[in-house]
């Protein structure tokens, strides 16, 4: 089994439409996860980077939520531009994208 340098976990949790917490899936998380998978493949990183699905990460208000390991960096990822910035800076250069960090 390959040892990956990065695991990109995207929360795909779904709640009822009337749930006050909302859910990452309702905020477009499936499209975000699909974009990460596409970018990993397009950049030839499938041996070193894995774009995974995750269940609830309990940060619903910040969704869609993405966590990157091994660092354990938590991002709020809203669109394609955010995905590309994470891929360009975090995955390819090892830089944290501070503007997308979920505040503690």
Tags for this model:
about 100 residues, alpha+beta, Glutaredoxin, four-stranded mixed beta sheet, 4 strands, about 25% helix
* Class computed from helices, strands and strand pairing: alpha+beta
What's the helix count?
Answer: 2
Based on the coordinates given, report the CATH architecture: 3-Layer(aba) Sandwich
User: What is the residue-averaged pLDDT?
Assistant: 93
**Structural domains: how many:** 1
* Topology, number of strands: 4
CATH superfamily: Glutaredoxin
State the shape: globular
- As a percent range, the share of strand residues is 15-25%
Strand order, sheet with most strands? 2-1-3-4
Helix content: 25-40%
Largest sheet: 4 strands, mixed
Order of helices and strands: EHEEEH
Please mark out the parts with pLDDT under 50 across 5 or more consecutive residues, or reply none.
none
Task: Give an overview in words.
With 104 residues, this protein is an alpha+beta fold. It has one domain: Glutaredoxin. 27% of the residues lie in helices and 20% in strands. A four-stranded mixed β-sheet has the order 2-1-3-4, covered by helices on one side. Strand 1, helix 1 (29-42) and strand 2 (49-54) form a beta-alpha-beta unit. The radius of gyration is 13 Å and the shape is globular.
């Amino acid at each position: 089994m390959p040892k990956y340098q990065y695991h990109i976990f995207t929360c795909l949790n779904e709640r009822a439409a009337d749930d006050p917490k909302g859910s990452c899936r309702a905020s477009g998380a499936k499209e975000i996860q699909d974009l990460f998978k596409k970018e990993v493949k397009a950049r030839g990183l499938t041996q070193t980077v894995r774009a995974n699905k995750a269940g609830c990460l309990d940060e619903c208000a910040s969704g869609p939520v993405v966590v990157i390991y091994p660092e354990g960096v938590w991002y709020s990822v809203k669109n394609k531009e955010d995905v590309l910035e994470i891929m360009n800076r975090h995955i390819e250069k090892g830089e944290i994208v501070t503007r997308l960090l979920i505040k503690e």
